[in-house]
Amino acid sequence: MNPSTTALVNVHWQRDIVTREGAFGPFFADEVEGRDAVKHAAQALATAREQGALVVYARAAFRPGYPDLVQNCALYEQVAATQCLQEGSEGAEIIPELAPRTGEPVITHARISAFQGTELDLILRARGITHVLVTGVATNVTVEGTARDAVGLGYRTVLVADACAAADERAHDATLATFGLLGSTLNSTDLADAFTTEEIAE
């Protein structure tokens, strides 16, 4: 992979989603901590920055009162029930361990995929991006949804497996097993070599 045409998209590293105190902590915190997903995401982030790849963040957030929240599934019903991920709240913030730097785009979205209803595709195309790497939570929900949309839009797409987590190991592994038909997977420790060998997703 050429770093100049690669983007690392970091999905939902937010307090309400990945911390034990967050609204979705009961669902995801054990796996996030058990898999050291934050540490691996930080390693992927450091490598991407060092190599000069584009770093992008995708966060879920809703306006006060949730006028932009369509409760058509259990996930969004849970958002409404817990009153979480409101714009401007501490819970909607990205965790400090993976905080964006000045100039790194932060995309806010209200649906499953970070591409839907956002400028993410435009931002990537404006930079000449051809390859998309994805980290985040949950592997089988927004990570997979975003990755599948990236494939559909023509990007070569890679899941950074150890920098993702789901509610349980089976859900995480199921996504990784099926995604091989659409793109590739690697671990954060392999990312530096992937930028130089061009063996992944080429």
UniProtKB/TrEMBL annotation:
Residues 6-185 form the Isochorismatase-like domain. The keyword Ubl conjugation does not apply. One of its GO terms (molecular function) is hydrolase activity. InterPro entries: Isochorismatase-like_dom, Isochorismatase-like_hydrls, Isochorismatase-like_sf. SUPFAM superfamilies: Isochorismatase-like hydrolases. Keywords: Hydrolase. The keyword Hydrolase applies. This is Isochorismatase-like domain-containing protein. It comes from Amycolatopsis bartoniae. The lineage of its organism: Bacteria, Bacillati, Actinomycetota, Actinomycetes, Pseudonocardiales.
